Amino acid sequence: MESILNGRPRLEAEINQVAEVAGYLWQKGWAERNGGNITVNVTDCVDDAIRAMPALTKPKPIGAVLPQLKGCYFYCKGTQKRMRDLARRPMENGSVIRICDDCASYVIIADQPVLPTSELPSHLSVHNELLARGVPYRASLHTHPIELVAMSHNPRFLEKDVATTLLWSMIPETKAFCPRGLGIIPYRLPGSVELAEATIRELSDYDVVMWEKHGVFAVDTDIMSAFDQVDVLNKSAQIYMSAKSMGFEPQGMTAEQMREMSVAFHLPK
Ligand code: 13P
Ligand code: ZN
């Protein structure tokens, strides 16, 4: 079957990594039905033949004007598509889009006219912001990790850096591998421009943010690294809940032990 991936090993490797992560999301129980979405900025893998490819759809509005994205290309999970299906057939459950010259709309170019995720306003607004800041992050992940979402139902954990401090204190690696912690975004309608705007604001201080009572949104250089950040945070949440279910409040690492980690690993916070 004719595919944009044929003869393009770099692009194929990017999409295969998305498929691998999609499988992990399903295995972890974080991707019920169509839950969660992934976008990757694949502009670096694009050649003249891709730039010349005709659009499969009419331009569709993004819902925001995003000047940094002019002429950029993204692989996007399709809306209503399942991660467990994407894991096996990424080009049937997602598509490659091109941002139009008006910076406010996109067309689908390959392989099939699979409509991108309903969270596209958040994903693309974030990519626009990452490029504007000159950050080398090219992948964004939204998923529904059970224990982290459960924590967001307690108002105490929605106060600034309360959840971050607790999660970092559960096991030393969490601070080392999610060094900017977990930002918090009060509940907003899924797929809304308000959610997108709040997400870009919070991501200036964090790599992973909590969408209250919904899920998390993470960014990193590639999709595996974004997944890793969520995975280490959720592992800490699981340790916290295991201790609570054994009937005690976990002690957590001391402030001195946390400071020692920051110095040893040259961490920003
Ligand atoms: P999509 O199927 O549109 O990607 O939506 C899934 C989701 O998690 C919305 O927040
Ligand atoms: Zn969601």
Overview of this protein structure:
Helix 8 (193-202) links the parallel strand 7 (182-185) and strand 8. The protein starts with 8 loop residues before the first helix and ends in a 5-residue tail after the last helix. The longest helix is centred in the C-terminal third of the chain and has 23 residues, at 223-245. The chain is built from ten helices and nine strands. It is an alpha+beta fold and 269 residues long. The mean pLDDT is 97. The chain has helices spanning 9-27, 48-51, 83-86, 120-133, 146-151, 162-168, 172-177, 193-202, 223-245, 255-264, and strands at residues 37-41, 60-61, 73-77, 94-99, 105-110, 139-143, 182-185, 208-211, 215-220. It has two domains: 1-144, Class II aldolase/adducin N-terminal domain (L-fuculose-1-phosphate Aldolase); 150-269, 3-Layer(aba) Sandwich (L-fuculose-1-phosphate Aldolase). The protein has a nine-stranded mixed β-sheet, with helices on both faces. Bound molecules: 1,3-dihydroxyacetonephosphate and zinc ion. Residues 35-36, 142, 144, 190, 214-215 line the site of zinc ion (ZN).
